[in-house]
Amino acid sequence: MRLTKFTDLALRAVMRLAVSPRGDALTTREVAEVVNVPYAHMAKAIARLQHLGVVEARRGRGGGLALTERGRVASVGRLVRELEGEGEVVACEGDPPCPLRGACRLRRALSAAQEAFYAALDPLTVSDLVASPTGPVLVGLVGARPE
Predict the structure, then answer these.
(1) Using CB atoms within 10 A of its CB, is residue 1 exposed (0-12), middle (13-18) or buried (19+)?
(2) Helix %, strand %, coil % for the chain, to 5?
(3) Cis peptide before 96 (omega within 30 of 0)
(4) How far apart are CA 111 and CA 119, in angstroms?
(5) What is the pTM of this model?
């Protein structure tokens, strides 16, 4: 199974925020630069993560992004499910609809495989993802600074 780019960059943002010292909030622009994605894409991902209660954004002086406690202990499987949405692996009801949709066993098999993929991620938390050696590498990442 392949994750959407949106889910991939949202997970990278969460991981980077997870290794930020508490009280040392990053901006959306800084996170985008560090994980090497366009600001507009990162802003959409951060908005979704805020909606999920994983990231808190504070405005003004001393503001920035911070991972919530819920975000630190979040199941990676749950996060991926919520970021990916309820879509199926195949589009049986697409345009045109698949002529096998009423008698096909592939759809059920792919659905089971998708759930197994998520189930493999369920026991992992965001904190697990940033354990060594990943965490120190994330801390050391520096994005391109605007001039």
Answers:
(1) exposed
(2) 50, 5, 40
(3) yes
(4) 12
(5) 0.83
Q: What's phi and psi for 129, nearest 5 deg? A: -65, -25
Phi-psi map region of 36: left, alpha, beta (phi>0 left; psi -120 to 50 alpha): left
Q: How far apart are CA 119 and CA 129, in angstroms?
A: 16
Paired tokens of 21: 């010292």
Q: How far is CA 10 from CA 17, 43, 99, in A?
A: 11, 10, 36
Instruction: Give the number of residues written for the chain.
Output: 147
pLDDT tens readout for residues 37-86: 999 999 999 999 999 999 998 887 777 899 999 998 999 999 999 999 88
112-to-11, 70, 88 alpha-carbon distances in Å: 23, 28, 11
d(CA 113, CA 68): 31
Dist CA 50 CA 65 (whole Å): 10
Token pair for 94:
């697409």
